[in-house]
Amino acid sequence: MASCSSMFLRFNLYKNTFQQMYKLTNEQKTIEEFQESD
After folding, report:
1. Residues 1-38: pLDDT tens digits?
2. Measuring CA to CA, which residue among 28, 32, 30, 9 is closest to residue 20?
3. How far apart are CA 30 and CA 38, in angstroms?
4. In b/e form, how buried is each residue of 13-38, taking b as 16+ CB within 10 angstroms?
5. What is the pLDDT of residue 25?
6. pLDDT at 20 (0 to 100)
7. Looking at residue 38, what is its pLDDT?
8. What is the distance between the alpha carbons of residues 30 and 6, in angstroms, rounded to a whole number?
9. Half-sphere CA count of 21, side-chain side, radius 13 A
10. CA dist 7 → 11, 15, 16, 18, 20 (Å)
11. How far is Cα of residue 19 from the mean position of the Cα atoms in its chain?
């Protein structure tokens, strides 16, 4: 089914985007904690 495969591709796209956003927020948190502890 074409609609099913397009949904799957869209899901992968969202998943990658969320992972990148999560990684960015985590890196920002680590930087803030590092600055606070200094």
Report:
1. 568 889 999 999 999 999 999 998 888 887 777 777 65
2. 28
3. 12
4. eeeeeeeeeeeeeeeeeeeeeeeeee
5. 87
6. 93
7. 57
8. 36
9. 6
10. 6, 12, 14, 16, 20
11. 2
